[in-house]
Amino acid sequence: MDERTRAEVERAEAALVEHYPRLVRLAYLVLPPSMGRHRKVLTAHGLVQRALPWRLPRRPAGALPAQRGPDAGAGYDLVRQRTVELALAYEDRQRPAVLLPTVPFVWGLRLFPRAGGADELALDQALSAVPAAVRAALGLWHLEGLDADAARTVLARAGVPDPDMAQRAAAQLDRRTGAGAGALLNSGEFDPCTIQARPTDLLRRRQRVRATAALAAVVVAGVVALALPTGRPADGGVPTAAAQALDPGRLLRAPDEQWARTARVDFTAWPPRGRQAGDQELLARALRVWAAPPPGTRIVTAADTSSRPPAAPPRLLYAGLIDNVMVVVFHDGERLVRYAEPEGATPTLHFARVDNADLTSAGGLVIGRGNGWMRYLIAPWVSGVAVRDLLAPGAPPRGLHLAPDGVTDRIPLPPADGAPCGSWPVAEFRSSPRIDDRRSFLVTDLGDLAPVHLTYLPPPAAGGGPGEATGAPALRSWARTACTLRALRGTGVRSVNNWVYAQQVLPEGGGTATWVCNRADTWRGPGRAMVQFQPSTAGPTDPGRVAGRAVGTAVCSRYGRHVLGDIHWQAKSGKWYLLAAGSGEVSAIDVTGGVRAGAAAPTLAVPATRDTPVQVAGRLRDGGGLRALRP
C-alpha cells in the first residue's frame, strides 16, 4: 500500500471513530423494520464497524471527490457510502454474502432504543411502510444534511435502481409527517447508541446462571454503554427483573378513565377488566406459564412474533371466564399475550404483535374462538358494536350485545379456506363521543388476536382521502373484494384498504370497469398489493379478475400512490382487447411486445389477441415512470 492510500485509510478510520454514533443512527434507520429493534441495534453497530475498507483505490487524476455533508471529509464520505451500501443490502435477500456481517455478540439481554412519544411512534410506523431506499434518502437529508443532488449521488453509488423515485417517495413521506421529521429522526427513539436493556429467558437459565453472569451478559465491542438490572432475591435464584415480571402484584393497570385523558389511545390506555382481574393465583399461574411453558402447552404465534418470556411486568388487560375457559390477556408494549386455561386441559398461549397500535387497531382483540364463532373484547372507547355481512352491502347492520366487561356476544367466523364464500361477517365498532362522535370502523377476524381494520379510498372523481369502509360506496367495493381476504389468514395483517384508483369505459359499449388496488399492511411493516379489474356487467359480489400483484412493496400505500395494471378482456362480440389503467398521476401509457400502442391518458384499450405477451409502462406527470404490476 503506498503512502497516499495508507493516509486515506487512516483518515477514513478517524472519521469512523469521530462520527460513529452518527453513522450507526443512519444504518439503524435504513435497516428493515422487520428485523426487530434488538437485531437492528446489533446489526447497525456491526455493519458500521465493517464499513472501513482494508484498502482504498487511488482516485483517478482529475476526478472530483465524493459529495459530502457538513463536517465530513473524503474519509467520512467513504465510510458513509459503505454504511449505506451495507444497510441497503439487507433489503435484498438475493445477496446472502452481505447478510452475514460480524455483529456484536449479546447473550441474555434484549437491546432497544429509548421509547418515544406519539409523534415518534407515528413516524416509525410510516417508515416501516416504505422501502429501504426511501428511508436512506430521508436519513441522508435529515441526519447527514445532504441536498437532493448529493443524496442522489450516494444512493446511485449504493446501487439504488431509481434514486429519483426514492427521493420523491421520501419527499411525500416528509410532507405527511410535517416539518418535525428531522428533529424526530434525531431523537432517542432512533438512536441505537443510547439504548435500554432487558433480560430474556432468565428462568430457563436460573440453574446455571448466577447473579454475576446475569449482570454481565453483554459484549458490544466496547462501544455501547448499558445500564443493567441489578440485584437478586434472597434465595440467590431469579434476578430481580425477572422476579418482578412474574409478580402479579406488579402488573401494570391503567386507571379506568385514562383513555379519555391521554393523546396515546392504544392498548396502554386499556384498564384491566374481567371478574378475575384481582385473582392473584390465576395471574401468577398465567405469568409462570408464559415465562416457562410446561410440557404440552400449546403455543400459537402470529407472523414474525416472538414468544419470549416477559422482561418486565406487563400490563393486565383482562382476566375472566369466557365460554368455560379461563382467559388472561397481557400487553407488554409490543405484543398481546392471551393465556387460555380450559378446565382439565393443558393451557394455550397465543402471541401477536401490536406495536404502534392506534385508536382503530387497538379497538378490540379476539378474546375467544369456538366452532364457527368468536368473541371480541372491545376497547373502553368503543361505545357500540354491530355485525354486518360484507357480501350484503345493502343490508343494515345488526346490533350486538355487550357484556359489562366489554365482551361481545358470539360473532360468526368468516368462511374457512376451501369452503363456499357465501357471507363474510365483520364487526362495526362505533367510537365513544368522548373520542369521536362520528366515527365507525369495520374490523374482521383473520385468525390472529388483533382484528384487521378495513378501509376504503374512493375513485379520483369522487374526491376525498382514505377513510372508513362504512359508507355505501365502500361497502359495495368491499362486497367484491371480501372473499380475497382468505388468502391473508395467519400473515400478521394489520389493515386492508380498497383503493378505487381508476374507472374505464369499455369498448363496444361494454359498460364501465373499476380498477381497484387492494393493499394489506402487516404489523411488521411490509405490505402486499393486488390490482383487480371489476367490470360493471358482473354481479355485485363478483371479485373480478386479478390483474397484478406485488409483495414487500409500498405500492398503493400513502407512500406509493402510483400504480398501473393491465389485463386482456373479451367484448360481447368475441373480440379481445388489451386494457390498461393507471392512477391519477399517470399521464400516458405505452405498450410494447406483441402489441405496440400508446395513449396520452391514464387508460388504454387496444385490440389484442388473447394472451398476447406485452409490456405495459406508464409515464407520470412529473416525468417519472412505472411498470404495470404482473399477476
Question: How would you describe this protein?
Answer:
It is built from 13 helices and 27 strands. Strands 10, 11, 13, 14, 15, 16, 17, 18, 19 and 20 form a 10-stranded mixed β-sheet that branches. A 5-stranded mixed β-sheet has the order 3-7-6-5-4, with helices on one face. A 4-stranded antiparallel β-sheet has the order 24-23-26-27, with no helix packed on it. Strand 4 and strand 5 form a beta hairpin. Helix 2 packs across helix 3 and helix 2 runs parallel beside helix 4. The longest helix has 16 residues. About 10% of the residues have low confidence.
Quickly describe the structure:
The chain has 631 residues and is an alpha+beta fold. Helix content is 22%, strand content 27%.
